[in-house]
Amino acid sequence: MFGLWKTWKALEARGIMGINRRNADYVLKYNKRHLYPIVDDKIITKERAIQAGIHVPEMYGIISTEKEIEKLDQIIGGRSDFVIKPAQGAGGDGILVIADRFENRYRTVSGKIISHEEIEHQISSILTGLYSLGGHRDRALIEYRVTPDQIFKSISYEGVPDIRIIVLMGYPVMAMLRLPTRQSGGKANLHQGAIGVGVDLATGVTLRGTWLNNIISKHPDTTNAVDGVQLPNWDGFMKLAAGCYELCGLGYIGVDMVLDQDKGPLILELNARPGLNIQIANDCGLTQRTHAIEAHLEKLAKDGVQESVEDRVRFAQDLFGHVPAQ
Ligand SMILES: Nc1ncnc2c1ncn2[C@@H]1O[C@H](COP(=O)(O)OP(=O)(O)O)[C@@H](O)[C@H]1O
Ligand SMILES: [Mg+2]
Questions:
Q1: Ligand 1 centroid to residue 316 C-alpha, Å
Q2: Residue 47 lies in a domain
Q3: Which of 113, 132, 172, 241 suits a disulfide with 255, CB 3.0-4.6 Å?
Q4: Which residues line ligand 1 (CB under 6 A)?
Q5: What's the CATH number where 231 sits?
Q6: pLDDT single digits (tens) 175-228
Q7: Is the pTM of this model over 0.85?
Q8: CB within 5 A of ion ligand 2: which residues?
Q9: Mind giving me the DSSP string for 46-78?
């Protein structure tokens, strides 16, 4: 605990962003309220992404009412792995990642065996709004289960790691790799017990990590080093994240992506109120970077210039790399 407190204090001097500043100067300022449903509802996000030609895990079906729960078998078809999640969920709550079938039952990614009735019950809970923001009625979506790229085998434990990039007005600001642990049940959400690992924006090489308020450089389950790993296709992830500005119109977002073994980079979800722990994982505050982007945008506006995705990615990589450019 003490270690973390010291880190926050040290970061303060280097422009750490607190929750009040994030809300007032970024979320409220750059995210128009009427656009929230695009990111707060994963079904709408998916539809938008598909329209924009951005890859997402394939949707097998949607269940909107109790009556439709009987469609589940038909939606799953002969598949033995799939994911069920609340369209308006957050923080990994209410998500069922089914990895296999076993006799007449299902095996979750963390090895738990569950019955068909239990799955139906879970869907029913999703529909009542148990996991939705604000607690109102929700829909359940059933989708393709991502199989992480082999690169993550050595540094992850079960489940799917995801890559989060914070994007301001289409400019990448900071990145983090989130690794599931035994504790997080295959999910990459930090409050479920996943690890957050900083990523050098210029190169895609991992830095050290933060886990349950500790700073770490080894994965607690595998004991393998989590730092110094080159993430594949880094420029691709940066462009994918930067392009999400055009997709949703929100100016300050967290873009969550995964690297599927067969399908490559996919967008998992967008977040209109991205968390602040990314600063600990990167040992760096957000404010200096966001200010640099805002100053850049002001200058561009004066000159009447708008930059492309490629320009924006290059700007971020030139300015925000941890490793000085050669
Ligand atoms: N299609 C999927 N395949 C495999 N794992 C998934 C899938 N969707 C989500 N997960 C796991 O669950 C976590 C949370 O999912 P996400 O869609 O980001 O919802 P939330 O808004 O609750 O964070 C992901 O980080 C990932 O580890
Ligand atoms: Mg998420």
A1: 27
A2: no
A3: 241
A4: 57, 83, 85, 89-92, 95, 97, 143-146, 159-160, 162, 180, 187-189, 256, 268-269
A5: 3.30.470.20
A6: 999 999 988 888 888 888 999 999 999 999 999 888 887 888 888 888 888 899
A7: yes
A8: 256
A9: HHHHHHTT---PPEEEEE-STGGGGGHHHHHTT
